[in-house]
User: Fold Calcineurin-like phosphoesterase domain-containing protein from marine sediment metagenome.
Amino acid sequence: MSKLIHLSDLHFGKDRPDLLEPLLTCVNELDPALVAISGDFTQRARDSQFEDAHNFISMINAPVLGVPGNHDVLLDRPFKRLFLPWRGYKKWINPDLTPQFENDTMIVVGVNSVDRFSWQTGRLSPARIKHACTAMSDAPHGKARVLVVHHPLEHPAETKKKPIPGAEQALEKLLGCGANLILSGHLHTWHAGNFTVKSNGTKAVQLHAGTSLSLRVRGEPNDFNVIDISDDHITIERYSFNEESRLFETAEARQFSRTSEIISD
Assistant:
């Protein structure tokens, strides 16, 4: 069994400093095999914000795998956004925009969904999808295949944000390559459920984290996900911040089979 922690939308520059210590304490006490961060490390892609994110990552005891979010490229400096979109991210977070992690239980593949030309909605190019599929296909049979991407490939009906163009087709290809679990953020709301691809019925667990540190919440407390992956099951616990205890605590839990059928909540 492997334990994976999923953080998202830290938004340094628009964060809650009072949550840093309780978040780090909880994450390190849980002792995961990996911490995955699905983008938006910063609010406006400033060096000072990236430096704060870098310092935060350095205090996590476990390995960290991250992907960029749309806030990690400059919105208000068009020249740099078009010609040097990843400068800050590569300097402070990771020069690799599509990182991978593998152990005996799982392979985790980062997918970059950020597009310098479509700042809000993002984009999954054929090359990015192919890279993720190759990584998953190369993994030994029986390992869980986990994707980390900033933009969700399905949106809840109530969200006002536009989905990635071509998301349905991208999702069908990724599930066809064997993805069992897709971690995302962007919406600042929590969700755990099944993707269903109509053409063949293939399913995988979709898991959106809210925001772990940002002030920009959507009627939900700051949260993160704890995922236990076994040979047969994926168990998800949502940890949210309790303003009274000043701690991140278990708020709800769900369990899925590795074929993604929900079996308890």
Notes: The chain has one domain: 2-264.
